[in-house]
Each structure stands twice: as C-alpha cells, then as structure tokens.
Specification:
288 residues; alpha/beta; Rossmann fold; 14 strands; binds 1-O-phosphono-alpha-D-ribofuranose; binds uracil; Uridine phosphorylase; purine-nucleoside phosphorylase activity; Nucleoside_phosphorylase_d
C-alpha cells in the first residue's frame, strides 16, 4: 500500500530542516527523554550530565541533549498545560518515527522512555508537604482527547463517570495511565503514589479563589474523597493526563513524578520548593 506523504502544512520544517516548534533535528533526540514544565529546570537537570551535545531554545521549548554515565538523555521543557504537551509529544514522536525527508511514517517505530519531573499541589492532608509522588494514573479535565481517537479502558470510563457525577462537571474527564514498565523500573523509598488531576488552569480548575469564585462547590473536598481502583485522587498539576494519553496513542513509555510543593487542605506552600524539586531530580537521575 502506498504510504501517505505528510503535507508541508502539517509536518512543518524550518528552512534548516528542524521541526517547527521544538527546533530540533532527529539526531538531537535521545531515546530517554526527561520532560519538565519550567524552561529554567532543564539546566538544573543537564548540569548532572557528563557532556552536553546540543542546547536548543525556541519559545518555552528548551532542549538539552547529552550523556550521563554512558547513556544519552534529552531534557525538554514544555511550558504549562496540555496544549503544549500535545505539540511536544507530536513533534518528539515525528523526530524519531517519521522520515522527515520523505515525509512518511517509518516502517520500524521507536518506543521512547519519557519521564516527567514536575511540581504539584497535594489534596490529601496526611501526605506531608515536600513529598514526592508518582502518578499511577491521571484524570484530564481538559478537552484534548476529544480531538483524538482516544480509547479509554473500562476502568477509566467508570472513574471518569464517577468524577463527573460527584463534582457535577459539564465535561467527562478522561483517565490515562502510567507505563507499567516504568513503574517497575523507577521504584524506591520516599515515593507516594496516586491519581493526579490534570487541570486546564492553576486557579479555579484547581479550586483556588483570588477574585473570581470557582464555579463548582466543595471541589477540592469532593475530589479528595473519591476512591479509584488506582488509589486516592491525590494531587493537581497541568500536564500528566495529556502526556499519558499521547504516549499511549503514539506507543511510548511514560511516567510522571511530582514534587508536592503545596498542600491545599492544610493551606501550605513550601518555603523549600526549590530544594524539593532538586531532590526529586536527584531521585530520578539516580535511577536512570
Ligand atoms: O513545575 P511544572 O513542571 O511546570 O508543573 C506544574 O507547575 C505549573 C503550574 O505552576 C504547571 O505546569 C504544573 O503542571
Ligand atoms: O498547586 C500546584 C502547584 C504546582 N503546580 C500546580 O499545577 N498546582
């Protein structure tokens, strides 16, 4: 069967042949990729590398690729939100699985290992501030999956329906899961686990009120009391559900780690957030 040629307006390359938003060429991407939200966090990770081969910046998308203990690793920042995650994941996948010259999907597809290191707010009062948490699954409160052929597990549908009903939400959240392979590879002490809520915003979508009152009553309280087959709903951030769903559809392994720098029911924000994030970076680096 003749392969589809991807048009220039869909797979966009710069004059130098780099992919449109990431600004990368295929040889600049390692098989193990660490993703972060904050562009400034990229250098905090690549400083552990023995050697940095490429440093590329375009908008909020910063990439450092190098070597650590003989292993090639890329670190890429996405900025905030699942809309950026969609761009990062699609272009990252195209760099390894599309022949950019022919504009055709390759016959042999690569499976990347992708690890998120991010910050997050905890909604369980008994998980201490500055803890680390791995997202076993994530609930996407955004609309990204309405635009993809996302096939949800039965378990996911049950959880999504339960959350929609309990909160009185107009949208049905989607549930996506961590890679079981990476959950086994990245084990160790000091790591809580739970279900992460990926919010389409930092304020009302995470139950915060500054001047505008969140529309949904008792949001935080109701969410934190929901039990799922993956455990309690534990924390808020803004990318993981999009990452897990895109990774699943594109055939990559993905895991998301959270530094819990806020505890919402206890009204705390960490005075040591920077130290906690650095601790999580070291925890992950030690297990690469
Ligand atoms: O620290 P990062 O990785 O950016 O992650 C979290 O912090 C940002 C909000 O402050 C959102 O991107 C959220 O997901
Ligand atoms: O509360 C928090 C802290 C970090 N990131 C979030 O998205 N929420």
């Amino acid at each position: 069967m003749k392969k589809r040629t991807i048009p220039e307006s869909e797979l966009i390359l710069t004059g130098e042949g780099a992919i449109y938003h990431l600004g990368l060429h295929p040889e600049m991407v390692a098989d193990t990729v660490i993703v972060v939200g904050d562009p400034a966090r990229v250098a905090k990770i690549s400083k552990f590398f023995d050697r940095i081969d490429f440093q590329i910046t375009n908008r909020e998308l910063v990439t450092h690729t190098g070597e650590l203990n003989g292993k090639r690793i890329s670190v890429i920042s996405s900025g905030m939100g699942t809309d950026n995650v969609e761009i990062l994941m699609t272009e990252l996948d195209a760099l390894v699985n599309v022949d950019l010259k022919k504009r055709e999907v390759k016959d042999k597809l690569k499976r990347l290992k992708i690890i998120r290191i991010g910050t997050s707010g905890c909604m369980q009062p008994d998980i201490p501030l500055d803890s680390f948490l791995v997202s076993k699954a994530a609930l996407g409160m955004d609309s990204l999956m309405s635009f993809y052929p996302w096939v949800e597990s039965e378990e996911g549908q049950v959880i999504g329906n339960k959350v929609q009903r309990t909160l009185g939400l107009s949208i049905r959240p989607y549930l996506s899961e961590a890679s079981t392979l990476l959950l086994k590879e990245f084990q160790g002490p000091q790591m809580y686990s739970g279900v992460t809520v990926t919010a389409p915003g930092f304020y009302a979508p995470q139950g915060r009120e500054i001047r505008l009152r969140p529309f949904l009553p008792d949001y935080l309280d109701r969410l934190s009391k929901i039990n799922t087959s993956f455990g309690q709903i534990t924390n808020f951030e803004m990318e993981t559900a999009g990452y897990y769903a895109m990774a699943k559809m594109l055939g990559h392994e993905m895991i998301s780690f959270n530094a819990l720098i806020a505890n919402r029911p206890n009204h705390q924000f960490s005075p040591n957030a920077e130290k906690t994030v650095n601790g999580l970076i070291e925890w992950v680096i030690e297990r690469l």
